[in-house]
Design a protein that fits this description.
Blueprint: H1 18-150, H2 156-169
Amino acid sequence: MNALATPVLAAGILELNPGLTLWVAITFLALILVLAKFAFGPIVRMLDERERTIREAIEQAKKEREEAVRMMAQQKESLARAQREAADLAKRSQAEMESFRAELAAKARKEADELVASARHQIEEEKVKAVAEIKGQTVDLAIAAAGRILKVGLDDKAQRALVEEYIAQLPASRS
């Protein structure tokens, strides 16, 4: 076969083919124009939207962090206030218990004093009754003894008056 008669079927990688290069360049430019018209705008808008969303998320996170720090400070303050109030309440309860205990002790002392005074009063009444009873028995004994000794016929009423007069003349320390 003849070298001229064989068609060029394949060119080497390093060989430059002007027609093919022209069509590749035209196709590349057409692709760039189509992409610029239809794809680059939406891609740039999407990237801008994504950047804006990320920026807003960062700002929101900063705000939420500041709010969390503020709320934590408020919570610590509330906890400290509650602890102070609990301590004050415990002190007040302690003081009230001491006051109640002192009041109860005073009331018990007062009741004990009243019982002692009542017992002394009852003892005094019993003593007066016993002295009166002893005087009565003494009168009866004196009348019986005087009646035997004198064998006088005084009536009971006269004898009793005579003995009561004698007892009344006795000193108060002996009664």
